[in-house]
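Subject: sequence -> structure tokens, single chain

Hey, anyone have a minute? Need the predicted structure for the following. Not urgent.
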Amino acid sequence: MKKTGQEMKRAEWQLSRNGLFWVLFAFAVVVLLHMEYLPPWITVTGLVCVLWRILEYRGAVPFPPGPLKALLVAGCVAGLALTYPSLLALEPMLSMLVAGFGLKLLEMHHKRDAVVLVYVALFAAAMGPVFSQDIPGFIGVLLVCAVAAAALVSINQPKARGLSMGPAVIALKILASAVPLMLALFLVMPRLGAFWSIPVPKHQARTGVSDSMAPGEFSELVGSDKVAFRVRFDGEVPARSMLYWRGLVFSDFDGREWTQADFYGSDHLVMDTYDYSHVERLGSPVSYTVTMEPTHRRWLFALSTPGTTERGVQRLRDSRLVNGSRISHRRNYEFRSWLDHRLEPGGLHSYRQRLETSLPAGFNPETVRIAREWARETPDADTLIRRVLELYNRSFVYTLEPPRLGRHTVDEFLWQTQRGFCEHFASSFVFFMRAAGHPARVVGGYLGGEVHPTEEFVTVRQYDAHAWAEVWIEGIGWVRVDPTAAVAPERIEMSLADLFGDDEGFLANSQFSPLRFRNFGLVNWFILQRDYLDYAWATWVLGYERQQADVLNRLLGGIDAPRLGLLFLAAALVTLLPYLVVRFVNRRRDRLEPTDQLILRFCRKLERAGLPRRTGEGILDFARRVAAERPQMANEVLAIANTYAMQRYDERHPPRRHELKMMVRRFNPAKKVTHS
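Reply:
Had a minute. Here:
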């Protein structure tokens, strides 16, 4: 039964079962890629849309009617308005895109609708690196692109009877052929900043050391094994006791919480990049590159007295480094630090003097009384520092689970509980020194880090967070004092993983962290390989612009237009190579045997003489018909046909190709017709 024109047109535009499967799969991987940044109700809505579309295809339910679709759209708009305070940000835009993708599945009737959704999937994949630039995120983007390409292939294939993985194979071949050109573009193209402004994610959690410090603030980080940053030194890695990664300086204290001072004080807190007049550099600098993980904060972490030429980085008088914008993606920073130095030895500005000696009124009266008494007995700052540290060494305990403190936190800690973490020691020490009349402040950052055994880069994790003190001594300047070292000196030489690896409080927020099982050789090998892979990714992919000139010089022997042109030409040739190979193989496969080529030449001669060969007509039948119609050429036609048949199909006869060639060459149908 023949199909009508309308039925044929419908079959031409109708989406196949295989095409529907790949479009739904593309939507699923888009949701999986962005699940961390999507509200849960968006994910649930997408799942409902997928199930509805599957049931509709099986005939269990119809397409949703117009009023229901309008209600779903209104519900999604209301959900977005309730979820986000403003729709002019990246997360609501992404949520709106994914929600629209899911709802569009419910009215996808034709191939053109499916093609539009494939383009939406590709756009959603392009948004992936805006949120995450790590290796799993990159793999997720590649997966979305591969599935979207497979969906596009399946949409344009003839209607299949069942599900097939054929489109995936074709899509992978297409993507693989583009790899050489992609690598050439990666190697050569300069890294340009965006020509537009994208609103950064506003609802991503800030990680790491906070901009304030209260009892328990740093000890909470012991539960996390996330990487804070990695460091590569140009030379040897300094001793662990020198790896104090300062990031924040807490100068304001309200009796409970320490906070940072304003960036702009009356003593010009923000320094010129090349101005080191407030620092006496006593030794050679240490050069290193810090690969910061995204924290969505502005401060950077470096060793003492850091210097840098990085654009957008401000250096403050108290040796803080502040980025011009929030660190929302992994980035490399090059620093130099003078570990042997004297900071502000010539004196403090009156503003800084007041700031670093101020105390909140009505807090910790016992500590204030004892500190002033000790100051009268021990007016020398060095001697007073040693006396206070002797108190810590004699009576205090370093623990991951310190007791809770009340209103007078310093009094209760120093004279009652005497059990705490680094922030308890640093906070109480600085308060005591201020009460004794000496400028002091709390410094927050990280201590130490794990040196990779083969690649020798340092990995600093969140549980390496640490707080210490700085005291200003006349004629010397700011001096680092770590009261934690007086209580637990092993903390300076060993990491928390080594000290408290078996403690229940260690990695409490990362119960399934591989670091819990690092004593097993295979697990430790896996951790080291993962760390190296992450570091190499940050250095050679995300931070490639720093090595680009060196890589191109080594690869090409120089950087100029001819060499770059040859590189692109080679990449283009390699990209086209699979196509050329396939084309050559197909041509060899389609090439006829020499005997077949001779018989085709024979048939073309007869066709020009007005005797075309009919479709499906065998060569012997054709020869007999020609012999009957044109008796004057019967002998030659039958001889050629029989010779061909014997050589092509009868293995008992020896090859007589040359004889057949001569017979076809001498055969001239036009001459036979003329003589007749």
